[in-house]
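STRUCTURE:
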């Protein structure tokens, strides 16, 4: 094929339809009319000798032949974006923009204050946006570039399409109200078993890691309150007789803010790994490389104090 006769912008059209599976949305993202986009799709169909996309259940689904192009197409466009035309190094003071993070509630608590403080001084034009994304939706959102970074306890994001970095590893700790009527200066395993607990609802990554560890050790706890957001547990503990089992950094902060005591877990604690995870498509993006280095550096500096 003579590439001089091929409009390489058609590759961008093809990639956008892959991502949106909707011609109207693809046209909007590219800033063109739908008839213009449809014309480009027809050119691609003639050029490649295949329908490429067919309408099914309200979406434009790729054909088997189109799926063969998906990964090579991404590699080509990512090389153009991040290696050929990328400006280096990235200067956050000169290039304001938004970084979108999917994080756990404790990830927000542990990371955001230091990140925002740094950006306010060094890159005030940069905005950080955090979202809580369902486990089933996160890979697709990261693949589409809608989420730049996942930060928190993401042991389940272990597919080959993701890169990940363990930033910190720590254990869990327990929180109890200071004037608890039955638990004084120590927390024994019998105390733990007899107590009523507040825990994360199933599907909360931190809660699942702790629950799985207890199950493996044959330890049962009586859960009186299951919460979707773990970050509110210390406040609940301070007002009730419930016991909470949380990542140590969160427990240490809570012990400084609320009238609660922190105890070592009366059982071998699971190892909790604080990670940042990103899609391999964006591994070479200068702006995201800068942001990942910043997140890791600030988290490790905070852990030293």
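SEQUENCE:
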């Amino acid at each position: 094929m003579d590439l001089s006769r091929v409009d390489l912008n058609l590759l961008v059209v093809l990639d956008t339809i892959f991502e949106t599976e909707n011609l109207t949305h693809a046209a909007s993202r590219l800033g063109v009319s739908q008839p213009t986009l449809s014309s480009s799709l027809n050119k691609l169909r003639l050029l490649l000798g295949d329908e490429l996309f067919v309408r099914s259940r309200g979406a434009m689904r790729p054909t088997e032949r189109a799926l063969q192009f998906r990964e090579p197409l991404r590699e080509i466009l990512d090389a153009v974006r991040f290696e050929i035309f990328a400006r280096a190094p990235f200067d956050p003071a000169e290039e304001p923009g938004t970084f979108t993070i999917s994080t756990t509630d404790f990830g927000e608590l542990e990371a955001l204050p230091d990140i925002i403080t740094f950006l306010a001084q060094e890159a005030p034009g940069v905005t950080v946006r955090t979202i809580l994304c369902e486990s089933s939706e996160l890979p697709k959102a990261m693949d589409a570039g809608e989420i730049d970074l996942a930060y928190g306890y993401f042991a389940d994001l272990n597919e080959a399409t993701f890169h990940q970095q363990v930033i910190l590893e720590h254990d869990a700790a327990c929180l109890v109200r200071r004037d608890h009527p039955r638990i004084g200066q120590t927390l024994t395993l019998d105390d733990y078993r007899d107590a009523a607990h507040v825990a994360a609802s199933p599907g909360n990554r931190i809660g699942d890691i702790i629950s799985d560890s207890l199950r493996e050790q044959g330890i049962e706890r009586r859960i009186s309150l299951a919460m979707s957001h773990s970050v509110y547990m210390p406040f609940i503990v301070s007002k009730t007789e419930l016991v909470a089992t949380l990542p140590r950094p969160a427990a240490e902060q809570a012990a400084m803010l609320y009238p609660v005591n922190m105890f070592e877990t009366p059982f071998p604690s699971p190892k909790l790994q604080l990670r940042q995870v990103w899609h391999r498509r964006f591994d070479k993006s200068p702006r995201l490389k800068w942001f990942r280095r910043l997140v890791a550096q600030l988290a490790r500096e905070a852990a030293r104090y």
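REMARK: Residues 15 and 74 are 7 Å apart (CA to CA).
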